[in-house]
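Thread: quick sanity check before group meeting

JM: Hey all, I'm pulling together slides for Thursday and realized we never actually wrote out the predicted structure for the chain we discussed last week. Dropping the sequence here so it's in one place. If anyone has concerns about the input, flag it before I start.
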Amino acid sequence: MEIKPELKYTKDHEWISIDGDCATIGITDYAQGELGDIVYVEIESLGEQLDKEEIFGSVEAVKTVSDLFLPVSGEITEMNEGLEDNPELINDDPYGKGWIIKMKISDQNELGDLLSADAYKELIGA
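JM (edit): ok, ran it. Output follows.
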C-alpha cells in the first residue's frame, strides 16, 4: 500500500494535490484496496461550487458504492474523462491516471484541516 508524502489526505480516504488555488483529488491506495474492483465512477457536480465535505460523486465497486466527499470548498472544474471507459484506473494507478476531479479552491484556510501522510498512516494503522 502506497501513501505519498507530498500529498494531503482526508479521514474519508481521499488524497489532494495542491497547486496554488487548484487541486487534484482522488481516493487513496488504501481506499481502492478496501473497495475492490471499481466498475463505475459518477461525478454529477462538474461546474458546481460545493462546500467542504459535501458529496461530489460516488465510486461503485463490485461489493459496494461509496460516496466521495470534497476535502475543501471550491468549484469542480474538471473530471477525469478516462474513468468513464476505464474506472479500473483507480485500482491500477490511484495517485496518477486514476485521479477523479480537479477543482478551484475557494478557502485556502481549510487546507490546514487536511492530514499529512504520517497522520493518514496513523489513521489507517499502517
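AS: nice. The beta strands are 8-9, 14-19, 22-27, 38-43, 49-50, 55-61, 65-69, 74-79, 101-105. The helical segments are 29-35, 82-85, 89-92, 117-124.
JM: adding both to the slides.
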